[in-house]
Amino acid sequence: DLTWTAFNWADRNHQGRFIRNASGAWHAREGEPAGLGRHPLKLKMPDGTTREFATGFGIGHRTELTFLLPKGVFKKFMVWAGNDAGIGGESVNTFDVLLDGEVAATTGVQPRLEKPAQLLEVRLGNAATLTLRVQSTGAPTKTHAVWAEPTLSRE
């Protein structure tokens, strides 16, 4: 028995229940900013290294992604959140995880690459929706944010 599952855009959020209310761009498993081509998702980690991620979302300026949660199936959500270490040197973002519209976890302001990515962990309780929100300041063309290894856990 698996006790966890990774989000996968192609899975349409577990049996097709997916809501996209994004105002910005998003890309599953890679970033694709205009004129720069596709590139792997990378984050500066707390130990100072840069890590490449195989799963996650590369997104743009002021973007929200909302997912419907099957009640009682998953207990916890985990995700690495931070500015793209490959091209996010000018990004100033705040990453929020919301449950049913209420902030459950936040990174606070992440200025450029001055702060490393943060692992956000949230207990789901009876939440029906989970939203990944990036609030950005600065130019939209300079915003490159990453949600890496988003994972739902049954434990």
Structure description:
By secondary structure, this protein is an all-beta fold. It is 0% helix and 52% strand. The chain starts with a strand and ends with a strand. 34% of the residues are buried.
The biggest sheet, with number of strands, parallel, antiparallel or mixed sense and barrel status, is: 6 strands, antiparallel
Strand content: over 45%
User: Tell me, what's the shape?
Assistant: globular
Helix content range of the residues, please?
Answer: under 10%
> What is the CA-CA span between the terminal residues?
12 Å
Helix-strand topology string: EEEEEEEEEEEEEE
Derived structural class = mainly beta
Q: Give the helix tally.
A: 0
Number of DSSP strands? 14
- Cα-based radius of gyration, to the nearest Å: 15 Å
Mean pLDDT: 79
Sequence stretches where pLDDT stays below 50 over 5 or more residues: 9-27
